[in-house]
Amino acid sequence: MLQTPRGTYDILPEDQPYWETVKESFKQTALSFGFQQITTPLLEYRSVFEKGVGEITEIVNKQMYRVYRSDLSPEEGEEEIVLRPEGTAPVARAYVQYGMQTWVQPVKLFYLGPMFRYEKPQHGRFRQHYQFGLEILGVSDPLVDAFLIGVVNELYQNLGLQQLTFKINSIGCPTCRPKMVNEVVRYFRASRELLCPFCQTKLTKNPLRIYDCKEEGCQQLIRNALVLVDLLCPACKDHFTQTLEYLDDLNIPYDLDFRLVRGLDYYTKTVFEVIAQEGEPSLGGGGRYDQLIELFGGPPTSAIGFATGLERVIEEMKARDIKVKPPNPPQVFLVYLGESAKKKSLSLLFALRHEGLQVGFALGKESLRSQLKTADKLKVPFVLILGQKESKEGTVIIRDMDSGAQETVEIKKLPGILRKKFTK
Fold it and tell me: CA 189 to CA 226: how far, in whole Å?
């Protein structure tokens, strides 16, 4: 039997209302705060992520899907192409490519779409997954950090996800990072043999990333590791302090997590994650990437971003029993009885839709009982019954599904009568 590839899944009709609700809510919230949508290709050159995300990251080192043409391999001169594993680096690439530094700053963008990572499929982790992201480019003010976190908080609250916790930290800038790295290396080098093989590699190439490791042996060392915020330069400390003060003004709850670093190389200064339940994977996260645009060949540009996985958001909504309505639920349901009524019902269906009414219809079901059963499942307030007699007389029966009351009306008057019922 043919099945989906390992680590992928189909979004079945029963789950589509959740997906449409989340996507539309995220989109409308972003638009209301002045963000504009950007859609980048699924395919990017590998160098976009090697430069931006970092070579010594699991994403680049282990998880990227490589794409080859059947008639041309990378060895023959074409730069390697990969399926995008995350959204910020492509947005940064687009910012430079299209000269967005000439736009009114800050440039506020959002994206929504699939990402691809080759990793062991497990609960909440898929090889194709969907992300929504926000990016603010062009302003360094800590006000922007707090603004973004405030928008993120509204993204979740608008879906009914309350009582979330923001974990936040600062990981410094090029001024204080060298001292920070030296101290971290000194600490972990003393217990190098207890680190996992991948973290032993990080120790020489990207030691701060050790803080992001989930291996139990590494976690034991991390729990007693240096508090990074103590190693910040005065400018970074001031930026972080102001960010927290703005969050206090917004009454957004946060926990200071001085060992939070996030998993990508481009982060600087503020980093944060959103936690629904302690011990569970984060719903989303982000942070500053003030050197990324310059790394891609653009001018020095401060920036901050956030991304959230739609699968985890929907899973949390279901866990909290948050209900969603199907898009455009039918307002009325049309039932037909007999062959002549069946023929007339189709034209009546489209005539009512052209009047702006959402009409349900039971394709192929002949008995009154089966059609009414479908209407009952859809929880429509009114059913329209078109029988042989009504078909000849140009009338239709309106049945109130709550009271059971029925009335016969002329078809030509039906749209106006229904509108009055819906405005009561």
Answer: 13
| Spatial CB neighbours of 140, under 8 Å, sequence gap ≥ 6 | 290, 302
CATH number of 13-176+232-319: 3.30.930.10
CA-based nearest residue to 130, from 5, 225, 42: 42
Model confidence, pTM: 0.85
Annotated domain spans of the chain = 13-176+232-319, 332-418
Amino acid at 199: C
CB burial of 380-403 (b: ≥16 within 10 Å; e: otherwise) equals bebbbbbbeebbeeebbbbbebee
The class level of CATH for 332-418 reads alpha beta
Average pLDDT by consecutive 10-residue portion of the chain (424 residues)? 92 95 96 97 92 68 76 64 94 97 97 91 83 97 97 97 94 90 89 88 82 85 86 95 96 90 82 89 93 93 97 95 84 91 91 91 80 88 94 94 93 93 81
